[in-house]
Specification:
The protein has helices spanning 70-84, 96-107, 127-136, 141-148, 155-165, 177-181, 189-199, 228-237, 253-256, 258-271; strands at residues 3-6, 9-16, 20-25, 47-52, 89-94, 112-118, 215-220, 241-246. The model has no long low-confidence stretch (mean pLDDT 96). A hairpin with a 2-residue loop joins strand 1 and strand 2. It is of the alpha/beta class and 273 residues long. Strands 1-2-4-3-5-6-7-8 form an 8-stranded mixed beta sheet, with helices on both faces.
Length: 273
Amino acid sequence: MPVARLNGTELFYVEVGEGIPCLVMHGGLGLDHTYLHPWLDPLGDVLRLVYYDHRGAGRSGRPPADTLTFDQLAADADALRAHLGVDRVGLLGHSFGGFVALHYALRYPRRVARLILVSTAAAWDYLAEVAANLVRRGATEEMLRLMASESSPDDAEAGRVFRILAPLYFTRPDAGIAGDLFRRTLFSAVAMTRGRELLRAHDLAHRLGEIAAPTLILAGRDDFITPVSQAERLQRGIHNATLVLLDRSGHFPHAEEPDAFQAAVRRWVTEVP
């Protein structure tokens, strides 16, 4: 599989499809691209999907943790764009990957052809709503304790913790989807811990009006951690934004409602100039 050597590390990536080049930015931090690939592959008829692992994650390099910053993650994405030899790209960011996509769109606006934001938010300033949603979802005492934890001692423990929490993220937690999504995931405790630190610095709500790229926002109605309120906030702030809500999805609508998700993305890509 291809590896791009750039900015003092290596980025692992996989390309699928044709059409508009589109960098696929995974969430976490501490996860990798495998919970998105191959679920997004059917969109390869309209997008040239470039799945990649952020620095410090998955099959990419492990540079010092302090190099994981929003600016650096955005710079890595732009270096990957240049490595691919394309002038402008689409961005598809899920969850924390959406945070990175927003930072990229603000730092490199002339490089962004389209922006697709999935289950994400403009800022991390609505913790009271998250807490209320956890209660609504029936989070156990163990889940609440693990959600509040700042770090995991190693990668194996990070994976164990994530699998305990996974049912919270799905409308149908017993459908076996989580097992399928994360079967190949290489968890990174260092990146996961660093991601929690970076959340405190994620506040772009006041800058959303600067984003000029056509933007599609997708959200699951049952998402406890990046709820509909935050998708609507993105829509209000970004001038050229379309919002699609998936009625039977939580945080991973591409897996819970794949047909509706793909249809919405395909329709938007083909209809928006």
